[in-house]
Design a protein that fits this description.
Elements: E1 2-7, H1 16-26, E2 30-33, H2 63-72, E3 78-81, E4 84-85, H3 91-104, E5 109-114, H4 119-124, H5 132-148, E6 152-155, E7 160-164, E8 178-181, H6 185-194, E9 197-199, H7 208-221, E10 230-233, H8 240-249, E11 253-258, H9 263-274
Parallel strand pairs: 1-2, 1-11, 2-3, 3-5, 4-5, 5-8, 8-9, 9-10, 10-11
Antiparallel strand pairs: 6-7
Helix pairs in contact: 1-2, 1-9, 2-3, 3-5, 6-7
Amino acid sequence: MDIGVFIFATDYSIRTDELAPELEARGFDSLFLPEHTHIPASRRTPFPGGGDLPKHYSHTHDPFVALSFAARATTTLKLGTGICLVPQRDPIVTAKSIASLDLLSGGRFIFGMGGGWNVEEMENHGADYKTRFKLLRENVLAMKAIWTEENAEFHGEFVDFDPVWSWPKPAQQPHPPIVLGGETDHTLRRVVAFCDGWFPRANFAFDPNEGMARLRRMAEANGRDMSTLSVTVFRAPADAAVLDGYREAGIGRALLELPSADRDTVLPLLDQHARLIG
């Protein structure tokens, strides 16, 4: 099982072009970055983790820009969004960003995505919380068309465009792996329908054996080959026994959390976490 990390990359934390080579040198598999374009000051939507919303949610870099710096500073480290808020994004522009990053990085991008939780944030982008997953599906299918077709077009309820030309195409064929965050059966149906992997969160009472069994049942029920689906656990605990359980369950990657802090705080943590690789 591969071990990677995620960090809310901010204006006050270690730079991604400093962090990425340190990860690569220690044998970590990947670096994933979350996304929030902004946080509405109203704070009408409660923080799912309870209590006050942590500062780093409103200070995140654009993930594609920050990952491009990480790509330039490394050669093998995989680069992912964890997660990209797809209902808040224009699919034509996002398809271009992803294809460019994947090509320039030599095919190292992993497209982690989700529907999001902040109602006001979505509304500021013109998205409706109740229909966000319908919009997510159409955005993903439209981007797949752009990545794989010379004359791409898409006609849906939310996304509608006539044939377009858009290059570059991604280095990975037919496109970078698409992994969907969430834990519900609805999520698993979407995973097997139009994604390449599942991206559950460990802090939501994730049981690796039960989760893998659920995914297997969903795949079998929908005629999807399990060998075509990856599983990456987000916010996995830095606990050797728990990670061994993930390996035994057949999980392919675990992402450990790094704090949004400076170099002197983060690098010693990397040394500790590197002992879990193997």
